[in-house]
Design goal:
- The complex is a heterodimer of chains A (1097) and B (215).
- In chain A, strands 47, 48, 50, 51, 53 and 54 form a 6-stranded mixed β-sheet that branches. Chain A has a 5-stranded mixed β-sheet with strand order 5-2-1-8-15, with no helix packed on it.
- The N terminus and C terminus of chain A are likely disordered.
- In chain A, 30% of the residues are buried.
- With 1097 residues, chain A is mainly beta.
- In chain A, 13% of the residues lie in helices and 37% in strands.
- Chain A is built from 13 helices and 63 strands.
- Chain B has 215 residues and is mainly α.
- The chains are: A mainly beta (1097), B mainly alpha (215).
- At the A-B interface, strand 24 and strand 25 of A face helix 4 and helix 6 of B.
- Chain A: Keywords: Cell membrane, Disulfide bond, Glycoprotein, Membrane, Phosphoprotein, Receptor, Repeat, Signal, Transmembrane, Transmembrane helix.
- Chain A: Signal-transducing molecule. May have a common pathway with IL6ST. The soluble form inhibits the biological activity of LIF by blocking its binding to receptors on target cells.
- Chain A: This is Leukemia inhibitory factor receptor.
- Chain A: Pfam families: fn3 (PF00041), LIF-R_Ig-like (PF21177), LIFR_D2 (PF17971), LIFR_D4 (PF25552), LIFR_N (PF18207).
């Protein structure tokens, strides 16, 4: 049947095939045939038999083998597939694949033969090594998403039941996103097969919120069986499953209200139907990442800590806006300094420092839970409204009865993480008691009180250590530590002794436990006055006999507070002798003195002080004064506030020493105060507030012997010496011509204010009015000073004075405290007549003698004197220089001034001037002598004009001894004022200067000077030309002196102004002695030059 | 600078109780004549409104300052953000002018009633977002109390004018607990802004009434 079937079947397939191909491309068919032909050709030897046996397995239990049919085989060909093993199993089948049970390791011969043609048999060697293990394609059972956490959950079955053995499986999961299926993530996941079907889960957290893009998931596997020696391959990818979110019409931003760790990266996305324009986090704009549709995302890297209300992320849409808030913060820090203590052993307080701020507040703030390990109790701490930066947190926990050891764990948690801190405490060692309250004081007696206070807490099982602070006014603070048994009812009392009677004390208290942890705070202060006690000593007593010696005055001092022990109300005084006793009782307190009339007997006086409790022991003193030797009064000066008295030890003095003192100016009996000193001391520093500087006090030292006092020393002294307040009153007893006798008086003790050390006496010459002005400064030489250190001296004679002279006398007293005021007086000494006469006569005589001698000498030497001091003066009439009359203008013999007579110029030559503006130029004045034209042509090659003319007044020729080659004659020139405004040629350089100087003042006269002079003056000595020039040039003096032979020098063409004898003003009138260089100007005396040169400098 | 165009539609969380509003508007205004002079309460309400007006911009600035950028950026404004549960104060002058006393007072009354409830909501939101900012919370609380005070004053005016007082209603409706932090911030912004606008409008309303009913 098979045989029939297959041939029938094959054509039908062929037909089908042909039918398909008829519609397909002919070329493709052709190439396929060519390929098939080639393949057939290669496998020509197998062509007739089945070939290419390939086996795979997907579960290691069965092998799927397939082979290629021989070329002649039709579709329905029957094959015999035999495995040559022990059983030699054969399978008959009409297809080219077979599923066989897995073969044992090793080679197996496989025979495949076509049953219809016995010859076509193929043999294959089949080994497990040639088998490929290709697992079945896995399938995702379930793909779900948790959008809030952006997590994908994948679930699949490993179909492990088909595998006989344990195998490792590697799963590969791929995640694609967007519609374009971009690969986002490819992860491997390892499991093992355990022979059963197992469902596996795998989760993945997406960076991008899942709402914003579609996500696809696919899976494949690879079975890694170590026992299988064949080839292992990956399975095919499972069909993809996807997750997407159906948006509503509103744009939305994801994730919403997320809490993340500072510094992490986060992606925000916006699901929108409309175009998103921009996105920003806080105020920072971010680039958009475009997703499917109009959805966009932004990536934020390394986010910084948010402010309290979070960081805003805002997406701007066409006509809308949407956003979200992200809270970036830190996980809770480990609680630091966790410490638990109790105030009262009823309640435990644990406090801690939360450490670094998390940056999260409100519902995201850290929550704390305090857990006690032994009892299992816990309390929670959540203070939502506390800002994150509050420094300390604390929690209260009720104590468990009878539990002393506590193991506390503090858990801290916030959305980003958790932390914890642990402490183990023995709570009885961590007691910080409350502040003691209701402190009360009760008297026991005058030196002890009971303190009671309230301290809440059940301290029944422990001892308290309390510190009592005792403060006495004006005294050092005292602290006493006491240990008290703790009680449950919170009331404590304790006795405090060793106090002083009638003293104000301030108490306060603080407590701790014996196992010290912390002192409580101090309680409030409580002030208390202790009760009175009898005075501990009798008052310090002294007695004085009244001045008439009939009454005894008894003095006593008030008791010091430390001895009074209460308020002293009164004193009792009694005087008792062998015969009688007198007493005065109830002398009220402020009075510290009593007077009793006594016979001069030997009495013992006793004084008793009384307070409300009782009387003091009596203090006794004998009335007897032991007679003393003659006691000398000594002097002493104190230092500062007191005075130091010293004495030698006297073994006779058995009881004590008494020093009494009084103001020396007071009358007897004088007593300011006294002081008792023990008998073994030899000095006492007497100090009293009553002491004043500059006041003299008397001190008396008494020694006590056999209940009687003997005066030992008497001292006057000052606490401090001051300068006298008054000057000694002095008078002039006697005055002579050369001496004055001065006498002065003592200064009273009160005004002396110190021990007198001497006087200073000054005297000087001086009238009353002038001397007043000057003081008596030391160092003035005209003041004479006498220092009188002998204070008993009361007079002074001042000798060696001048007669009939006014003297200024000054006297002042001084102590060690300084100089007193001065008293001054003016005294005139008497006249000394003989001396005066001599003083007048001698100078007169000397003057007369000198006069006579001088007269004689002068007379004898009168000729010489006349020659020396009074020579003959020559007559100026004889000076040749002034002989004008002999010159050309003879006609006017005595003429010396300018005369405006007409004169005809003999030669005028005009040159075209290059000057740009009119200038006031000196008129060239030339002598009418015919040399003028000659000279100009000879000596001046330059192009210039010489204006020659005859002066209106004929110049007077001066005889020139030198025979000057240029002119031969010196001339005195008179200037025609009217002809000054004449153009004149000048050398180039002067023309250059002109525009500058031309604007200034133009002198009316210009005296032309030879060019050589110009060289000297203008080139060599420009500075000189610039400054002032004397009218008389020094050079001209000696060069042109008529007598000087040098004037004949060829070089000396310098202007000659005349002789030194000539009158200065005349030099104006005398021209330079050159007639041929009218343009030269530098050396000449010229205002023009003066002004022209100056700006050029 | 951050002019937010558009309207946050997802803020439209609380549907306006439209029928109720209409009902209050259509209430008959034909009540009997006022037994007492309305000048007193009007003057009192006017003073309070003037006082409130001085603080509204401070409240808005303080509020924005605590919300972070871009809210706290200088010049921030998003006029298009609205809340459906809060009637906007903006009204065309013509309509406003045409309103009679009863309508005018009714609208103000309704707005301030809504504002007191919203200010309470914003205060709660901010105690979550800004718990450590007592200044902001105090200002929000003070604004709410003043709005309530103004409501009382307006009721007194309406009584004096013989107008019926609209019943108190729940403008917020279902409690919007699920709002995101961003929505809360926007909501608070709209409320504090509208509080200012409504206060400005109330000052004008009352000034008009004051002129109409002189003492």
């Amino acid at each position: 049947m098979m045989d029939i079937y297959l041939p029938l079947k094959r054509p039908s397939w062929l037909v089908d095939n042909k039918r398909m191909r008829t519609t397909s491309d002919f070329q493709w068919l052709l190439s396929t045939f060519v390929l098939l032909y080639l393949m057939n050709h290669v496998n020509s030897q197998r062509k007739e038999t089945p070939y290419d046996l390939k086996c795979t397995t997907n579960n290691l239990q069965k092998w799927d083998c397939s082979w290629k049919a021989p070329s002649g085989a039709s579709r329905g060909t029957l094959y015999e597939f035999c495995i040559d093993d022990r059983s030699h199993s054969c399978y008959h089948l009409a297809r080219t694949n077979i599923e066989i049970p897995a073969l044992s390791p090793g080679d197996h011969e496989i025979t495949i033969s076509l049953q219809d043609a016995g010859s076509s048999t193929s043999k294959f060697i089949l080994n497990e090594k040639n088998i490929s293990l290709i697992p079945d394609t896995p399938e995702i059972l379930n793909l779900s998403a948790d959008f809030s956490t952006s997590t994908l959950h994948v679930k699949w079955n490993d179909k492990g039941s088909v595998f006989p053995r344990h195998s490792n499986v590697i799963w590969e999961i791929k995640i694609l996103w967007k519609k374009s299926m971009e690969l986002v993530k490819l992860v491997t996941h390892n499991t093992t097969l355990n022979g059963k079907d197992t469902v596996h889960h795998w989760s993945w957290v997406s960076d991008l919120p899942l709402e914003c893009a579609i996500h696809y998931v696919g899976i494949r596997c690879y079975v890694d069986n170590l026992l299988f020696s064949g080839h292992k391959e990956w399975s095919d990818w499972s069909p993809l499953k996807n997750i997407s979110w159906t948006p509503d019409s509103q744009p939305k931003v994801f994730p919403q209200d997320k809490v993340i760790l500072v510094g992490s990266n986060i992606t925000f996305c916006c699901v929108s139907q409309e175009k998103v324009l921009s996105a920003q986090i806080g105020s920072t704009y971010c680039p958009l990442i475009h997703l499917d549709g109009e959805n966009v995302a932004i990536k934020v890297h390394n986010i910084s800590v948010s402010e309290n209300s979070g960081t805003n992320v805002v997406f701007m849409i066409e006509d809308n806006v949407c956003g979200t808030v992200v809270f970036a913060g830190y996980p809770p820090d480990t609680p630091k300094k966790l410490n638990c203590e109790t105030h009262d052993l009823k309640e435990i307080i644990c406090s801690w420092d939360p450490g670094r701020s998390t940056g999260l507040v409100g519902p995201r703030n850290t929550s704390y839970k305090l857990f006690e390990g032994f009892s299992g109790k816990y309390v929670r701490f959540k203070k939502v409204d506390v800002s994150a930066n509050e420094s300390y947190h604390q929690l209260l926990l009720q104590m468990v009865p009878n539990q002393e050891i506590y193991n506390f764990t503090l858990y801290a948690r916030n959305p980003l993480g958790r932390s914890e801190s642990t402490i183990l405490v023995n709570i009885t060692e961590k007691v910080y008691p409350y502040t003691p309250t209701s402190l009360k004081v009760k008297d026991i007696n005058s030196t002890a009180v009971i303190l009671s206070w309230h301290l809440p807490g059940s301290f029944g099982k422990i001892n308290l250590l309390c510190q009592i602070e005792i403060n006495k006014i004006n005294s050092v603070q005292e602290s006493r530590n006491v240990t008290i048994k703790g009680v449950e009812n919170s009331s404590y009392r304790i006795a405090v002794g060793k106090l002083n009677p009638y003293t104000v004390y301030t108490f306060r208290i603080c407590c701790s436990t014996e196992t010290f942890w912390k002192w409580s705070k101090w309680s409030n202060k409580k002030q208390h006055l202790t009760t009175e006690a009898i005075p501990s000593n009798g008052p310090d007593t002294w007695r004085e006999w009244s001045s008439d010696g009939k009454n005894l005055i008894i003095y006593w001092k008030p008791l010091p507070i430390s001895e009074a022990n209460g308020k002293i109300l009164s004193y009792n005084v009694s005087c008792s002798s062998d015969e009688e006793t007198q007493s005065l009782s109830e002398i009220l307190d402020p009075q510290h003195k009593a007077e009793i009339q006594l016979n001069k007997n030997d009495y013992i006086i006793s004084v008793v002080a009384k307070n409300s409790v009782g009387a003091s022991p009596p203090s006794k003193i004998a009335s007897m004064e032991i007679p003393h030797d003659d006691v000398k009064t000594e002097q002493a000066v104190g230092m500062g506030k007191g005075i130091l008295l010293t004495w030698h030890h006297n073994p006779n003095m058995t009881c004590d020493y008494v020093i009494k003192w009084c103001n020396s100016s007071r009358s007897e009996p004088c007593l300011m105060d006294w002081r008792k000193v023990p008998s073994n001391s030899t000095e006492a520093l007497i100090e009293s507030d009553q002491f004043r500087p500059g006041v003299r006090y008397k001190f008396f030292l008494y020694g006590c012997r056999n209940q009687g006092y003997q005066l030992l020393r008497s001292i006057i002294g000052y606490i401090k010496e001051l300068a006298p307040t008054v000057a000694p009153n002095f008078t002039v007893e006697d005055t002579s011509a050369d001496s004055i006798l001065v006498k002065w008086e003592d200064i009273p003790v009160e005004e002396l204010r110190g021990f007198l050390r001497g006087y200073l006496f000054y005297f000087e010459k001086g009238e009353r009015d002038t001397s007043k002005m000057r003081g008596l400064e030391s160092g003035r030489s005209d003041i004479k000073v006498k220092n009188i250190t002998d204070i008993s001296q009361k007079t002074l004679r001042i000798a060696d004075l001048q007669g009939k002279t006014s003297y200024h006398l000054v006297l002042q007293a001084y102590t060690d405290g300084g100089l007193g005021p001065e008293k001054s007086m003016f005294v005139v000494t008497k006249e000394n007549s003989v001396g005066l006469i001599i003083a007048i006569l001698i100078p007169v005589a000397v003057a007369v003698i000198v006069g006579v001698v001088t007269s004689i000498l002068c007379y004898r030497k009168r000729e010489w004197i006349k020659e020396t001091f009074y020579p003959d003066i020559p007559n100026p009439e004889n000076c040749k220089a002034l002989q004008f009359q002999k010159s050309v203008c003879e006609g006017s013999g005595a003429l010396k001034t300018l005369e405006m007579n007409p004169c005809t110029p003999n030669n005028v030559e005009v040159l075209e001037t290059r000057s740009t503006f009119p200038k006031i130029e000196d008129t060239e004045i030339i002598s009418p002598v015919a040399e003028c034209p000659e000279d100009s042509s000879d000596a001046e090659p330059e192009n210039h004009v010489v204006v020659s003319y005859c002066p209106p007044i004929i110049e007077e020729e001066i005889p020139n001894p030198g025979g000057d080659e240029a002119g031969g004659t010196s001339q005195v020139i008179y200037i025609d004022v009217q002809s000054m405004y004449q153009p004149q040629a000048r050398p180039e350089e002067e023309q250059e200067k002109d525009p500058v100087g031309g604007a200034g003042y133009k002198p009316q006269m210009h005296l032309p000077i030879n060019s050589t002079v110009e060289d000297i003056a203008a080139e060599g000595d420009l500075d000189k030309t610039a400054g002032y020039r004397p009218q008389a040039n020094v050079n001209t003096w000696h060069l042109v002196s008529p007598d000087s032979p040098r004037s004949t020098d060829s070089n000396s063409e310098i202007v000659s102004f005349g002789s030194p004898c000539s009158i200065n003003s005349r030099q104006f009138l005398i021209p330079p002695k050159d007639e041929d260089s009218p343009q030269s100007s530098g050396g000449g005396w010229s205002f023009t030059n003066f002004f022209q040169n100056k700006p050029n400098d | 600078m951050n002019e937010w165009a558009g309207r946050v539609r997802d803020l439209t969380l609380f549907p306006l109780p439209g029928p109720l509003c209409l009902l209050t508007l259509l209430l008959p205004l034909l009540s009997p004549a006022a037994p007492i002079s309305p000048a007193g309460p009007i003057s009192q309400a006017y003073s309070l409104a003037l006082y409130m007006q001085k603080n509204t911009s401070t409240l808005l600035q303080t509020y924005l300052q605590y919300q972070g950028s871009p809210f706290s950026d200088p010049g921030f404004s998003a006029p298009e953000l609205q809340l459906s549960s809060l009637p906007p104060a903006a009204v065309s002058f013509k309509i406003w002018h045409a309103l009679d006393d009863g309508e005018r007072l009714n609208r103000a009354q309704g707005a301030f009633l809504a504002l007191t409830q919203h200010l309470q909501l914003v205060g709660d939101d901010q105690s979550d977002l800004n718990p450590g900012s007592p200044i902001l919370l105090a200002q929000l609380g003070a604004a709410r109390l003043r709005a309530q005070g103004l409501l009382g004053n307006m009721a007194a005016i309406m009584t004096a004018l013989g107008l019926p007082i609209p019943p108190e209603e729940d403008t917020l409706g279902l409690v919007p607990f699920g709002a995101s932090a961003f929505q809360r911030k926007c909501r608070g912004y709209v409320v504090t802004r509208e509080y200012g606008h409504w206060t400005d409008r109330a000052v004008r309303d009352l000034a008009l009434l004051k002129a109409k009913y002189p003492a």
